[in-house]
Amino acid sequence: MLHLHRRFVLFLLLDALVILGLMGIFAAVNHAFVPGQPQLSERILITPGASDEPNAPSNSQPSSPKAIAPVGKTTAVIPPTLHVARGTPENPEIMETTEGESYDLKRLRALKVKASLHKVEMGENYWSIANDNNVTINTLLGANPGMPFTAAINRPLVLLSRKGVLHRVEAGEKLEQIAGLYGVDVQVLKDENGVTWWKGIKEGDVLFVPDVKPIRMIKAWKNYFANRGFFGIPFAGWGKGWTSGFGMRTDPITGEQKLHKGMDFKAKYGESVFAAAAGKVIFAGVAGGYGNLIQIRHANGYLTYYGHLSKILVNQGHKVRRGELIGKVGATGRVTGPHLHFEIRKNGKAINPLPLI
Fold first, then answer.
1. What is the DSSP track for 103-140?
2. pLDDT digits (tens, 9 = 90+) for 110-126
3. Alpha-carbon distance 22 to 16, whole Å?
C-alpha cells in the first residue's frame, strides 16, 4: 500500500513538471525577440538643434538665416520609451506630442517596410525630402512624431520606404483599438507587423500602419493642418520646395535685411502657375520688381500675388476657379533666376502663406 502511495506521488510530481515545462516553452515563444533594425537605431542620434519659430517650415537656405539653425552639440540615443499625450478636447483625433519625441526603432515590428536615417542638408525642406524619397509630408510626420515645425541643417529624420505611419503600442492597447484609430483592418496590421496568436503585441512595440495619415504631432503641425483648406497649391512643383520663405531675410541682390512678403517656389522656366483659390483678377501686368504680376482678390479679405511670370494667361476682371491655369513661371523683375513668387495678403497686410496652403 505504501509502495502504491509513493508511485502516485511520483506520478503527480512528474505531471506537474511536464506542465511547468510546457508553460515555459509557450512563454518563451510568446515573448520571443522580434527582429528590428538595431544597425540603424544604434546609429540614430537625436539632436535638439536651435530654437525653432512656429511660423513656417524652414527651407534651409542661406538667404534665410532665421530659418536655418545649426544643430547643437548635445546628442542622445533614441529613447527606449515614448510618452505621447492622448487627444485634446479641441481635436481629439490628433494626439499632441512635444518636440524631439521619437520611436524606439529597436522595437520596430514591420516586415515590409525599411527605416533609414536622413540628415537635413542645405537647400532641403520637409517637402523636398519627402518628394525625393517618394513619400509625403504625412509619412515624415508619421515616422517622426516630435518633428519640429522648422527644419534645421543636420537635424536627423527617420525615413520610411513606404507611405504610412509608425505607431507605438501604449499600455493596455489592443490591436483592434489601434486599427480603429487609423481606420484599417486588423488583418492589415497583423500582416504588416508579423503579429500572430503566439507572437502578440506588447507595450513599447512599434508598428507600421500603411497608407494612413499621422495622428501624433506637435501643436504647430496640428494648427498648420487645421488652417489649410481655403487655398490650394499655386504651383505644380510644390514637392521641389522653395528657395525663400516668408519673413526677414538677406536680400539676394542688395544684401540688406528686409521683409520677404511671400514665398519663392523652385521652378523651371515656363512651368504652369495656378490660382490658389477662386476669385477675381484685379491686376495682370508689369509691376516693378515683381515683373509680370497677377493679383487675385478672394473672399474674406484675401488677396494673392503671383510674380516674376514669363506669361500672363488671364486678363483683369477675369473670374478664376481654384486650380485654374493663370500663367507661366519666368524671371521678370528683380530676380536672380526663374521661380514663382507667391504672396497672400489679408485686408492688405502680407501674411505667411504656408499655414494656408
1. --GGGB--SS--EEEEE--TT--HHHHHHHTT--HHHH
2. 999 999 999 998 878 88
3. 10
